[in-house]
Write a structure and sequence with these properties.
The chain is mostly helical. About 75% of the residues lie in helices and about 0% in strands.
């Protein structure tokens, strides 16, 4: 079940790039993100009310939601949308691929049971190189604003990784729906304020059927379904494994763009994709240590008939 959820998240977040491109044809970026999360919040509130899911009640829980909501939704999304005015989407994708690398380091602080190993380090470097290979033609910085955009994306990647680690470490008792709703409500206000004063009222935007589709798809599928599944997965696997999704989504986005938007697939896409898949394989599929027959015998109750049978096997 966990591998199915992981694959589904790769597919969902890979297709959100397509929906964002469609929406940005008619909508300004920061307000677009704000409307997306308002829509998701209203729909999620209806789901919570219908299913009678309890919302967080303690000050500790709301502090967690405020901090992680700001990091995940306010800061990360603001940095990505702002930076893409000055750098290419490909360069932004490469820099966002550092999320699992930051997650590996921060997990050592908050989740000491998740060890930093050379296998993980090599795998993450391999994955980042794979993403960079796919977008190698877009990896250029022309001026200081572009450099500032790169720094902003990296800072946003760190914030997203820290939000995931804090959520896994302190939010295990919260329902994924109430966790997501609380984070969005706490992180939405800065986006709305920046969008309103910089881009104007959403009522005056150029609303088309495509932009409405983009908002609804990103709200329902790309936010509610995706984060609900992600938080479910995050509590069941190592955080580094969950965050490897950030390495795969650019690859999915490239192939979706080729199919839906007739974007050209460059030759290095396949080589970069192979590096990314190798990276994920190194992190996800580890050989389990072998247990000797002697140790097996110690673990089995040989006083029972079933124990005797298993020892013989």
């Amino acid at each position: 079940m966990k591998i199915i959820v992981w694959l589904l998240l790769c597919l969902i977040w890979g297709t959100t790039w397509f929906a964002i491109k469609v929406g940005l044809r008619d909508l300004p970026p920061i307000s677009f993100a704000g409307v997306r999360f308002i829509s998701a919040g209203l729909i999620l509130l209806a789901i919570i009310s219908f299913q009678k899911i309890s919302l967080p009640k303690t000050k500790r829980d709301w502090t967690l939601l405020a901090v992680t909501g700001f990091l995940q939704f306010s800061f990360n999304y603001s940095m990505v949308f702002w930076s893409e005015q000055y750098i290419s989407s490909g360069l932004a994708a490469v820099l966002q691929a550092t999320i699992p690398a930051f997650g590996l380091v921060m997990a050592r602080v908050h989740l000491p049971q998740e060890k930093i190993t050379w296998r993980k380090i090599i795998a993450l470097l391999l994955g980042i190189v794979g993403v960079a290979t796919i977008f190698i033609e877009q990896l250029h910085v022309n001026n200081w604003l572009a450099f500032a955009g790169c720094v902003a994306v990296v800072a946003g990647a760190f914030a997203a990784a820290e939000a995931s680690i804090l959520t896994k470490s302190f939010g295990a008792s919260l329902h994924p729906a109430s966790l997501l709703f609380g984070q969005m409500m706490c992180g939405l206000l800065p986006l709305l304020l920046v969008g309103f004063f910089k881009e104007g009222s959403p009522l005056n935007f150029h609303w088309t059927s495509n932009s409405v589709f983009a908002v609804l798809y990103l709200a329902i599928v790309g936010t509610i379904a995706a984060f609900w599944l992600y938080y479910w997965l995050l509590q069941r696997v190592e955080s580094t494994k969950a965050m490897t999704i950030a390495l795969v989504t650019p690859l999915v986005a490239v192939f979706v763009g080729a199919m839906a938007l007739d974007e050209k697939l460059v030759p290095q896409t396949y080589f970069g994709g192979a590096l990314i898949l190798s990276s994920v394989g190194l992190i996800t599929f580890r050989r389990q240590p072998k247990t000797s027959v002697k140790n097996i015998g110690r673990q089995i109750d040989i006083g029972s008939p079933r124990g005797a049978t298993e020892t013989q096997l």
